Amino acid sequence: MPSSSVSTDGCRTRFAAGVVHRIAILILVTLSWKLSIQPEQQACSAEKFRGANIIVIFADDLGYGDLGCYGSPTIRTPHLDQMAREGLRFTDFYSAAEVCTPSRAALLTGRYPIRNGMCGPRRVLFPNSKGGLPTREVTIADALRDQGYATAHIGKWHLGIHAGSRPLDQGFEHSFGLPYSNDMDARADLPKGSTGSPTPPEDGWNVPLLRDGKIVEQPTDQTTLTRRYTDEAVKFIAEKKDRPFFLYFAHTFPHVPLFASPAFKGKSRAGIYGDAVEELDGSVGRVLAALRHEGIAESTFVFFTSDNGPWLIMGNQGGSAGLLRDGKGSTWEGGMRVPGIAWWPGRIQPGVTNDRTSAMDLFATALALGGAPFPQDTTIDGRDLSPLLLHGQSLPDVPFFYYRGDKLAACRIGDWKAHFFTQTGYGQPKPDIHEPPLLFHLGVDASEKRNVAADHPDVIARIQAAVQAHQSGVVPGEPQLD
Ligand code: MG
Asked: Are residues 363 and 443 in the same domain?
């Protein structure tokens, strides 16, 4: 018995060793197989979803602190909050510029506006500006239309009113909205202060409403504008549900003068600004409901963001950047860090990301999802976010450059941000030049209150090197705003 027992134990031991050996081989084979296919799977991540519908919803002058899901205690945004709960909420998402025109140009082209001249001392395009988005620029709409997408622009344009720069010249098959900001084309006898008034005159601005480039209303009835934009968006979704589509939905509000339709006017705790934002939230709810109703929510990528920070000089009619410093017009965080929410049921894992990303990335992401080739012979600054969106993979950090007009004002690498000059959004005629630069750590000091430059000359040197490398590769485009 003992020998048998030994023998049996020996058999068991050999058997166990054999099993362990086989399991180890199995694990190794599985691992190597996984490793060998993973890069290909990653490369195909966007490919797999080729043909997804893409909707970008773009608010105007909405601040970082103006949504419930970004901490607003007073403005109710249940639809955007739900979109954030079901999708991916970005804590460190940036517009690519501190004001409207350059920010829009960057979103649609994936490029810093310095590269195509859509920035400068005038800051934005005015009705008397001679330029606009150059025709040769490749927009998301250009690239996706070439892949068979239906394309539509709804809302504010502000990228040029002359031939070559208009929506139909920039890849959009349909267009419905205002050619520029709702405070332009003011009536000559408009009393001072009307723009930022809590009760602006409804007929104070002569801005036209255009459909496919033709005036259909002037002055535009701004009180029902958000509702009418949304009707148009819902109709477009229903009509194009059977083919891939790209919808660029750029709201007019909450840019001043502020109006809301009767269903929302006077309903918010935060005055007319809150009314306008709550109506915008209702609009997002209708768009997402339409996608569900048409049965295409799971084949549609939706991204919500804002073109720049809140217009603080408008007082109660300007929004809030929350804990961030300053607002629209400035390269402090409040001017350019904005809400960013990605939504795609069944594809995007719900959560929150701290990855530093920007509106320029939407260009690269849209092209990847649409299977469109990147434009050749042109520098694209945005990055494809699909590894982050679809696989939760963090993106490698790259420097981010903050421009005020055509001047590079600041740079962020990781959580470090250096300011070479600062200037509040509006009302400070000359910048404060910083030599050495101001340095803030946005992780521990998101409000940019404590300059720690003296303690970190190495970080400043690293940022300065990144700025030099960037600037040596930038050829400024011909100025378009003059
Ligand atoms: Mg704006």
From this structure: no
